[in-house]
């Protein structure tokens, strides 16, 4: 885009998190529905960049909360995947559908559960997201949360009446016999090919430990990663105790 192109300035302002510049550009007539040269919407960029203030500005100026960026990516889904709870709440408050479906059948709740973002899942369920809507591969939400190893997500799903408890219990118990690090490494190898060096990180969180495996390139820089929580024993206990 040309440097004299006002929409280009809007995207620069979003990248920089400059709310004052966003206000000036919107007041000057730049459309809140502006897209960049790749078809990405300003609202989607603000959502995935965790810019709740800018998201609210764009929504107040008329940006459609459920408009798909590049025809495939929903702002609510992008925010949910990143764990950006304030952005998710802003989009829901502006009328975003809690069960909006983006490319390949993903919803925001699917992303939240796959990434273990409990606060996002709670916000979506409180706004009316279906706790039993299957994910893109057909798995019930409770099974997805059990697979992730996220006790927090399991708790909020149970609180909102999620079904498939027997299937989720089977999944949680299955992971008790698996090595999470080895499973993550094998999954990355299937996607990116075998033989890459890797490094493993373990991060404590409220529900235990999150394990992250990163694949390294020839210079030792991470180029792919995956992570998973390890709360499967607690999940099994929650499901066994559920009425």
Automatic annotation (TrEMBL):
Coiled coil: none annotated. InterPro entries: Ankyrin_rpt, Ankyrin_rpt-contain_sf. ANK repeats lie at residues 38-70, 104-136. Keywords: ANK repeat, Repeat. This is Ankyrin repeat domain-containing protein. It comes from Streptomyces sp. R41. Transmembrane segments: none annotated.
């Amino acid at each position: 885009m040309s440097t004299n192109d006002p929409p280009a300035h809007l995207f620069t302002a979003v990248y920089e998190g400059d709310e004052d510049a966003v206000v000036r550009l919107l007041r000057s007539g730049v459309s809140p529905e502006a897209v960049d040269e790749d078809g990405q919407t300003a609202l989607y960029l603000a959502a995935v960049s965790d810019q709740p203030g800018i998201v609210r500005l764009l929504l107040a100026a008329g940006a459609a909360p459920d408009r798909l960026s590049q025809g495939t990516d929903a702002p609510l889904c992008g925010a949910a995947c990143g764990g950006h709870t304030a952005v998710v709440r802003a989009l829901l408050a502006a009328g975003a559908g809690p069960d909006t479906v983006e490319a390949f059948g993903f919803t925001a709740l699917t992303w939240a559960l796959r990434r273990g973002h409990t606060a996002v899942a709670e916000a979506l369920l409180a706004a009316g997201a279906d706790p039993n809507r299957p994910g893109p591969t057909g798995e019930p939400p409770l099974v997805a949360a059990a697979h992730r190893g996220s006790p927090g997500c399991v708790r909020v799903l149970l609180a909102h009446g999620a079904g498939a408890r027997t299937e989720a219990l089977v999944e949680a118990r299955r992971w008790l016999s698996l090595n999470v690090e080895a499973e993550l490494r094998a999954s990355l190898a299937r996607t990116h090919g075998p033989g890459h060096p890797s490094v493993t990180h373990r991060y404590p969180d409220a529900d235990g430990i999150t394990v992250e495996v990163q694949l390294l390139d020839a210079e030792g820089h991470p180029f792919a990663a995956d992570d998973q929580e390890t709360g499967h024993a607690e999940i099994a206990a929650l499901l066994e105790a559920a009425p």
